[in-house]
């Protein structure tokens, strides 16, 4: 997989989402839970706006000085016995990790949930060199068994119900018990325990690296990242280059914002910071440590008006309040990053060509901007994307461009305008009802699929204006 | 150890940021607000314990309070309630200081085997921890706001002790309780500035492990412990 998760056109992805009743109900209820949880935490603090201000200041300063902090981080990781590899592209990152797999002759790799490794398509790269990859986050493991894609960045299997999960476990792993979540969870615990203990290499993503000491921090509830970093002898951390804070003091603030904004918890069950290799006398932790720092298109965003998109801490608060995500679900975005932040970030990382519809998957209500814990102006960036798509990229749909061209020609030819304006009402009569068109023909259809179009008025503006000049118009 | 492709990578960042590479002299600005210091500001140790007790009900964790004299008895009771036959515990000075060495020796006659983490035994420690019913460690710093025990793992306190056994018991000296994560990370930051090495692993542990990945229903106990108890001990 890479950042793009579907070859189907946007319209059919949206349609599939709209037709999936279970998924839509699950998304609606999850959004409610997440949103209420976040709001309760914000209310309890009482000064949430100050926290957001601080979060935004920290992210702004860090990204503006990213080269400095990444240098400091890499020096400190190196001092603590770790190797650091800077990867410009997904291919470079994957090739480096493949070389470690081969050198270690590793058979089994156990992973904890990580968006960046999804983004670079690492699992495929690992499979290509013959490694057996096991995802250890419960949601990710379910998706892996089912060969499915994540639909939410915090709860990736949100679109699946427990009966589907029971069936997957039964078919793929011989599970014989009920569809109770506790029993399903216990089964996953037993199955995955064996995998942790027999893995040669552990691979994680990274929530925040700490430049001043070379630590990398993982935020989980299940404890899988602790397993992955404690048991295998070789550990590889893959981090998006912007996932860094200057010191432990800023780590506190951003972790506090992340767990509250993401899941409404003061802290998740486990926040784990590891630094380099294990020290003398320690039995747990890696003997060999690698940190892979990934650019993969991020640096193109630096210095542009979209720079603050790199402030994102992947909490999904914007996704959890988005009315569009609520209706269409995560897969409709066709990107591993769905929702408002996905619609901003995906075209930046992967180009407009395949993702030109995403900036339109928004009602511009601004709820995303309002909840973002680091104050990214998400809906404003979506508008900017739209402007660029129309003005510079010329990537509006062909039909729309043809229509606009036609409109320009027609509206600038007085005779044509006059005749057709008068003819519009009778022509559209068969589709009009109570002065509204609800199921329009031809090019109107795309519009009226989702909303009504007003029927042309009884009197044209020109005839009204003429009458008014004669003093005959009513107003 | 090796650092590969750094200059090419960071030069490109600086170029995109429209300036020369910054390799020194960057200072954190003075942030305009510091709301993290407002939480439980001025609370007494007893008030912090009250807050810790409140949050424990939210994080599915039992909280017990005792003094040093009664700690061994309370601990024994908790081990028994968890059906503990195999126990793995952190080693180090505090066991003696709190009278736990005597307790651990005496448990053998009740059929409870206690393995003290042993830095000379390498992976054998993990094997024992994986089979254990109960893991026991002291808390190094305790966060009242979130109900979190902070562990600075080292050769005496392996990462597995609080992770692999079915249940987990944290002994919390009352003096380790602070308001929130801010005070713990400040301490680590100051140690780093003073040139001390940070632990190879710092764990912030908040109750038992859990997941809501199946239909958003809470499952307590996924990869880590299924149950957790905190025992707060008067140590002043």
TrEMBL record, chain A:
4Fe-4S ferredoxin-type domain span: 309-376
Keywords linked to the UniProt accession: 4Fe-4S, Electron transport, Iron, Iron-sulfur, Metal-binding, Repeat, Transport
Chain intervals with Polar residues compositional bias: 446-462
Sites where the protein binds [4Fe-4S] cluster 1: 312, 315, 318, 372
UniProt domain LUD: residue ranges: 70-294
Region (Disordered), start-end ranges: 433-475
Matching Pfam families: Fer4_8, LUD_dom, LutB_C
Domain Lactate utilization protein B C-terminal: 384-469
Domain of life where this protein originates: Bacteria
Positions that bind [4Fe-4S] cluster 2: 322, 365, 368
Compositionally biased intervals (Basic and acidic residues): 464-475
Family, similarity comment: Belongs to the LutB/YkgF family.
Function statement: Is involved in L-lactate degradation and allows cells to grow with lactate as the sole carbon source. Has probably a role as an electron transporter during oxidation of L-lactate.
Name of the protein: Lactate utilization protein B
UniProtKB/TrEMBL annotation, chain B:
Domain LUD, residue spans: 51-233
Record InterPro entries: FTHF_cligase-like_sf, LUD_dom, LutC, NagB/RpiA_transferase-like
Cross-referenced Pfam families: LUD_dom (PF02589)
Top-level taxon: Bacteria
Family that this chain belongs to: Belongs to the LutC/YkgG family.
Functional description taken from the UniProt entry: Is involved in L-lactate degradation and allows cells to grow with lactate as the sole carbon source.
Protein name: Lactate utilization protein C
């Amino acid at each position: 997989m890479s950042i793009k998760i579907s070859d189907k056109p946007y319209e059919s992805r949206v349609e599939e989402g709209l037709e999936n009743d279970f998924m839509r109900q699950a998304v609606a209820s999850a959004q409610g839970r997440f949103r209420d949880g976040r709001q309760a935490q914000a209310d309890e603090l009482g000064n949430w706006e100050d926290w957001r201000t601080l979060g935004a200041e920290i992210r702004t300063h860090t990204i503006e000085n990213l080269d400095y902090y990444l240098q400091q981080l890499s020096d400190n990781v190196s001092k603590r016995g770790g190797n650091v590899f800077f990867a410009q592209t997904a291919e470079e990152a994957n090739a480096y990790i493949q070389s470690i797999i081969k050198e270690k002759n590793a058979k089994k790799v156990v992973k904890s949930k990580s968006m960046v490794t999804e983004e670079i398509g690492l699992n495929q790269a690992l499979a290509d060199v013959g490694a057996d990859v096991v995802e250890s986050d419960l949601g990710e493991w379910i998706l892996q068994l089912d060969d499915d894609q994540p639909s939410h960045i915090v709860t990736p299997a949100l679109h699946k119900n427990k009966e589907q999960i029971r069936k997957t476990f039964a078919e793929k792993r011989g599970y014989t018990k009920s569809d109770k979540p506790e029993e399903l969870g216990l089964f996953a615990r037993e199955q995955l325990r064996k995998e942790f203990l027999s893995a040669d290499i552990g691979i994680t993503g990274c929530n925040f690296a700490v430049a001043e000491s070379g630590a990398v921090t993982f935020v989980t509830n299940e404890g899988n990242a602790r397993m992955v970093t404690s048991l295998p002898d070789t550990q590889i951390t893959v981090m998006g280059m912007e996932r860094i804070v200057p010191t432990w003091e800023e780590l506190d603030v951003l972790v506090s914002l992340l767990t509250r904004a993401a899941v409404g918890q003061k802290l998740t069950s486990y926040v784990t910071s590891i630094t380099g290799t294990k020290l003398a006398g320690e039995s747990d932790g890696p003997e060999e440590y690698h940190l892979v720092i990934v650019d993969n298109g991020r640096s193109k965003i630096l210095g542009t008006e979209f720079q603050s998109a790199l402030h994102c801490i992947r909490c999904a608060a914007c996704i959890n309040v988005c009315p569009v995500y609520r209706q269409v679900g995560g897969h409709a975005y066709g990107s591993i990053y769905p929702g408002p932040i996905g619609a901003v970030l995906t075209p930046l990382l992967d180009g407009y060509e395949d993702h030109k519809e995403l900036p339109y998957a928004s009602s511009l209500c601004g709820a995303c901007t309002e909840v973002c814990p680091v104050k990214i102006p998400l809906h404003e960036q979506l508008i900017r994307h739209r402007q660029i798509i129309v003005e510079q990229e010329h990537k509006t749909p062909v039909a729309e461009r043809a229509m606009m061209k036609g409109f320009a020609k027609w509206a600038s030819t007085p005779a044509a305008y006059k005749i057709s304006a008068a003819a519009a009402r009778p022509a559209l009569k068969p589709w009009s009802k109570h002065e509204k068109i609800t199921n329009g023909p031809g090019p109107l259809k795309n519009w009226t699929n989702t909303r009504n179009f007003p029927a042309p008025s009884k009197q044209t503006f020109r005839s009204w204006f003429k009458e008014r000049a004669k003093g005959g118009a009513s107003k | 150890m090796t650092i590969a492709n750094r200059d090419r990578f960071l030069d490109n960042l600086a170029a995109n940021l429209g300036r020369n590479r910054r390799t020194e002299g960057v200072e954190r600005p003075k942030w305009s607000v510091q709301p993290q210091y407002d939480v439980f500001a001025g609370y007494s140790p007893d008030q912090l314990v009250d807050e810790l007790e409140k949050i424990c009900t939210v994080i599915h964790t039992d909280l017990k309070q005792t003094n040093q004299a009664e700690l061994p008895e309370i601990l024994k009771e908790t081990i028994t309630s968890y059906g503990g036959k195999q126990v793995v515990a952190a080693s180090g000075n505090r066991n003696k200081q709190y009278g736990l060495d005597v307790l651990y020796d005496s448990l053998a006659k009740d059929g409870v085997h206690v393995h003290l983490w042993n830095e000379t035994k390498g992976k054998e420690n993990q094997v024992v921890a994986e089979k254990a019913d109960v893991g026991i460690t002291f808390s190094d710093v305790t966060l009242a706001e979130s109900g979190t025990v902070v562990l600075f793992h080292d050769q005496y306190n392996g990462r597995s002790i609080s992770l692999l056994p079915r249940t987990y018991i944290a002994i919390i000296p009352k003096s380790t309780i602070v308001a929130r994560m801010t005070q713990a990370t400040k301490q680590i930051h100051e140690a780093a500035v003073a040139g001390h090495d940070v632990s190879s692993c710092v764990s912030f542990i908040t109750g038992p492990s859990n997941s809501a990945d199946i239909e958003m229903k809470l499952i307590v106990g996924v990869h880590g412990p299924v149950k957790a108890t905190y025992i707060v001990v008067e140590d002043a």
